[in-house]
Amino acid sequence: MQLPAWQTALAEAFNDPQSLFSYLQLSPESHPDGQLAQRQFSLKVPRYYADLMGKGDPDDPLLRQVLPCREEMIDTPGFIADPVGDLQAKQQAGLLHKYQGRVLILTTGACGVHCRYCFRRHYPYQNGTATPGQWQSILDTIRSQTSIREVILSGGDPLMINDQRLAKMVGELQALTQLKRLRLHSRLPVVLPQRITPELLELLSNSRLQSVMVLHANHPKELSPALAAACEKMRSAGITLLNQSVLLKGVNDDAETLIRLSEGLFEIGVMPYYLHLLDRVSGAGHFEVEPHRIEPLKQQLLHQLPGYLVPRMVREIAGEASKTPV
Ligand SMILES: *Cc1c(COP(=O)(O)O)cnc(C)c1O
Ligand code: SF4
Q1: Residue with the nearest Cα to atom 8 of ligand 1?
Q2: What percent of the chain shows pLDDT beyond 90?
Q3: How far apart are CA 230 and CA 232, in angstroms?
Q4: Cα angle: 255, vertex 261, 265; to 5 degrees
Q5: Residues near ligand 1 with C-beta < 6 Å?
Q6: What is the DSSP string of 150-179?
Q7: CB neighbourhood size of 319 (10 A)
Q8: 59 CA distance to ligand 1 centroid (A)?
Q9: For 254-264, what is the mean pLDDT?
């Protein structure tokens, strides 16, 4: 059986720093000592995403998001393995129910790209994601809790799952009569827009549930013509498009970049939703923006953007009933 083109592209993604360096015409000396970090959480970058990076630019903001580096091996006080309390919130394998009215399903541990700042980099996916056997009991749990109106497919990245399996999942979810909305949290449209297949669009637009796709773009350079085309198709299919970003030092920690990101998103039909402060996960300390710079940044966004393009700046605090506004 022939694989869909997006799966072939993922199979051919860069998975070691050396080949990415030579593709980007960078000398390995520009980023020494990334090997230990690479062993802990390997590099993974689709060629499409690498093509958005500047050739020969060791400080490219997209490269910085994905390249293993020695700073990851530094222990920063307060940075821990599970900063958002996912293990504590885990109600059953594969299901997170932290907030009222919505549940989050960990559909898979796989992603299309490995983001160095990710709070799930230490998550024990082996026993944390929904296997087909656990799927049935997740459906039972949702059915028994009638206050749940929305299911969020997350991971990992739910669009790593193929369209046939997704269609089956969506079919089973929409049979739960209390559900109104289906949300997908995915970075794949940004790192591999060809993942937005006709089959995916069809399965979402045919569903009784209202679909919401929450993209994850952090920098205006990620907003390519290919992504714009994918967003256009999703909007035509009736999917509401939102974006969440993470505030990252050396990537998007200046007002000018964040403003271009919000405006660029709106141009392709995506509403800025959240700007997350970094989850304090061990190995990501070098991405944290100094606390005293946060309020001025927020003020600049408020002053320079129309209100509807200002993302909600939030932090996730373990045990809280929602994301916490900053
Ligand atoms: C972030 C998150 C949600 C979604 O929160 P919204 O504010 O509705 O976007 C839901 N469940 C879990 C476990 C989350 O971490
Ligand atoms: S879960 Fe999202 S942020 Fe984390 S590595 Fe996967 S794509 Fe990146």
Answers
A1: 102
A2: 83
A3: 5
A4: 150
A5: 96, 98-99, 102, 104, 152, 322-323
A6: EEEEESS-GGGS-HHHHHHHHHHHHTSTT-
A7: 9
A8: 32
A9: 98
CA–CA separation, 195 and 89 (whole Å): 30
Q: How many angstroms does the Cα of residue 29 sit away from the middle of ligand 1?
A: 40
Cα 186 to middle of ligand 2, angstroms: 8
Whole-number Å distance, alpha carbon 144 to ligand 2 midpoint, is 30
Q: How many residues does the chain have?
A: 326
Provide the 10 A C-beta neighbour count for residue 191.
30
Pocket of ligand 2 (CB under 6 A): 111, 113-115, 118, 120, 156-157, 187, 216
Could you say which ligand is closest to the alpha carbon of residue 154?
A: 2
248-286 burial: b if 16+ Cβ within 10 Å, else e = bbebbbebebbbbbbbbbbebebebbbbbbbbbbbbbbb
Inform me whether the pLDDT recorded for 131 exceeds 80.
Answer: no
| Burial class of 227 by CB neighbour count within 10 A (0 to 12, 13 to 18, 19+) | buried
**99 alpha carbon – ligand 1 mean position (Å):** 7
Alpha carbon dihedral 48, 53, 55, 60, in 10-degree steps, equals -160
Q: Specify the DSSP class assigned to residue 315.
A: E
What CA–CA distance (Å, rounded) separates 324 from 98?
13
* pLDDT of amino acid 2: 76
Determine the Cα–Cα distance for residues 179 and 312; give it in Å rounded to an integer: 26
pLDDT digits (tens, 9 = 90+) for 171-193: 999 999 999 999 999 999 999 99
Measure CA 109 to chain center.
12
